[in-house]
Automatic annotation (TrEMBL):
Organism for this UniProt entry: Venturia nashicola
Pfam families documented for this protein: 2OG-FeII_Oxy_3
Gene Ontology CC entries for this record: endoplasmic reticulum
Recorded coiled-coil stretches: none
PANTHER family given in the database record: PROLYL 4-HYDROXYLASE ALPHA SUBUNIT (PTHR10869), TRANSMEMBRANE PROLYL 4-HYDROXYLASE (PTHR10869:SF246)
Necessary cofactors: L-ascorbate
Keywords from the named record: Dioxygenase, Iron, Metal-binding, Oxidoreductase
GO molecular function, one term: L-ascorbic acid binding
Descriptive protein name: Prolyl 4-hydroxylase 1
InterPro entries, A to Z: P4HA-like (IPR045054), Pro_4_hyd_alph (IPR006620), Pro_4_hyd_alph_FE2OG_OXY (IPR044862)
Residue span, Prolyl 4-hydroxylase alpha subunit domain: 113-307
Amino acid sequence: MIENGLSVVWSLWTGLIIIWKEDEVALFRRSTLHEVVADDFGRAFARPPPPPDRVAFVAGMKREQIPDYLPAIFTENYLPKTFKTQNVSLATQYEENGCPTLPMSVQIFSLDPLVIYIRNFLSPSERAYLKILAEPDFEPSTISSDSSTDPSIRSSYSAILESDDAVVTCIARRAAKFQGHIRLSKLEPLQVVRYFPGESFKFHNDWDIDEPPGKRRSSTFFAYVGCEECVGGSTRFYHLSRNGTSKRWCDVVDCTERALKGVKFLPIEGNAIFWENLKDGVGIEEVLHAGTTLEKGVKYGLNIWTRETSEWT
C-alpha cells in the first residue's frame, strides 16, 4: 500500500505489474519489445468485463490520462528504475529511425468487387501502442457523417487518432503506399474501434449515399488490432461468395458454417482486409458488410478510409 488506498505488486520474475484500489484492478505486462503493454483490463481479476468508461492506464502515460486516484508522481517515484528505462515510446523510435517495413503478404480474395486480404499489416508493437493511444478518447461510435449514434445499429466505441503521432503517420503512409502512393490528404483520420461482449455493427456500406459525388469513401482498410480470447466478432460480407474458395482460406475465413450466406473473416490480430467501395463513382452494393456480435473477449479494430479527393472535409 503506498498512498490514497493504492496498492502495487511488481514481479521481477514475471514482469507483471498489478495495480489496484478497492475493487478496481489493472494488470500490465512488460513485453520483450521493451514497451509497456496494457493487458485486458482486469481480465484475470474482474468478472464481468469492465464497462466502456473504465480506463486502463500504464506507467509513463500523459499526466492528463492518469486517473484521479493515482498520484501524478507515481511514475517517477514508485516504479523500479529498470522498469522505467524500458518504457520506451514507440513513437520516439519511429521518429528517430523512420517507418519500418513490415513483412506483409497479400492475397486477392475477390476481383469484382476488389477485396484483398493482408497478413501482418500491423506489427505487435503497433497494435499494443494503438490500444494505449486510443483508450482515453473512446466515445460511442457514430453511424453517419453527421456524427449521429444508434446503438441498435452500431454499439461499439471509437477513438479518432491524432494524425501528427509518428506511429499513426507511419501506418497511414503504409495504407497510402498500398494504394499506389496516393496523397495522405485523401485519408480520413485513422479510427480505432473497440467492442465488448454483446456489441456489433449491423450490415452497412462505408460509402455514404448522402455524401456529394467526389467526396465519398473510395476504399476501406479494416485491421484487427487486438482480439485475445475472442469468440465471435468476425467481419461478414453478405454478398461475397465462397463457391470454389480454396480450403487454404480456412485459416482466416470461417469455413464451419457451410449454410451461411456470404463470407466471415476471422478477427486475426495484425491482419487486415482492404476493399473498394466505389466503381466509376458509384457505390458498390456487393461490399455490404457487418461486424458480427462479439460473444467473448475484447476486440479492437482499425478503420482507414480513403476519400475520392483530398478536398473531402
